């Protein structure tokens, strides 16, 4: 069973950048597509970026052109480079293996808080 640990969040001013990391346990990590999700209290968790096992990427319209997802299978880690951050990017960010819509296959980690000040 793969488990996830997210890190790299913090407080940043609008226009700034952050790089999130998702460290995964388990030897089967490389076969999974991995997604980055975010959740604001009271709202549904949404998938913002996805990377396939082969490295193909997809992004939500709200982050396209600003966020970049990548993976290093040798390190069992997926990254989310976030540039040109906006206050509306403020959320707790999670990683997981995407299923349908905004759902995921595996247990959720603790997430990492990203706060963008205006």
Could you characterize what this model shows?
There is one protein chain. The protein has 118 residues and is mainly beta. It is 0% helix and 46% strand. The protein is built from no helices and 10 strands. It has a 6-stranded mixed β-sheet, with no helix packed on it. Strands 1-3-8-7 form a 4-stranded antiparallel β-sheet, with no helix packed on it. Strand 5 (46-51) and strand 6 (57-59) form a beta hairpin. The protein is globular, with a radius of gyration of 13 Å. It starts with a strand and ends with a strand. The model has no long low-confidence stretch (mean pLDDT 94).
Strand content is over 45%
| Pattern of helices and strands | EEEEEEEEEE
Class by alpha and beta content: mainly beta
Number of helices: 0
Give the terminus-to-terminus CA distance.
40 Å
Shape estimate = globular
Rounded radius of gyration (Å): 13 Å
Low confidence ranges: none
Oligomer: single chain
Order of the strands making up the biggest sheet:
2-10-9-4-5-6
Topology diagram in text:
Blueprint: E1 4-7, E2 10-13, E3 18-24, E4 34-39, E5 46-51, E6 57-59, E7 67-72, E8 77-82, E9 91-96, E10 112-117
Parallel strand pairs: 2-10
Antiparallel strand pairs: 1-3, 3-8, 4-5, 4-9, 5-6, 7-8, 9-10
Brief write-up:
By secondary structure, the protein is mainly β. The protein is built from no helices and ten strands.
Provide tags for this entry.
globular, mainly beta, 118 residues, 0% helix
């Amino acid at each position: 069973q793969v488990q996830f640990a997210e890190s790299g969040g913090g407080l940043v001013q609008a226009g700034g950048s952050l790089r999130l990391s998702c460290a995964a346990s388990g030897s089967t990590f490389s076969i999974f597509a991995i997604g980055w999700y975010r959740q604001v209290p009271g709202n549904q968790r949404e998938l913002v970026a996805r990377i396939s096992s082969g490295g193909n990427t997809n992004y939500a319209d709200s982050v396209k052109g600003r966020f970049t997802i990548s993976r290093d299978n040798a390190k069992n880690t997926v990254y989310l480079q976030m540039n040109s951050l906006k206050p509306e990017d403020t959320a707790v960010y999670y990683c997981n293996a995407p299923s349908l819509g905004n759902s995921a296959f595996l247990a959720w980690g603790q997430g990492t808080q990203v706060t963008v000040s205006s």
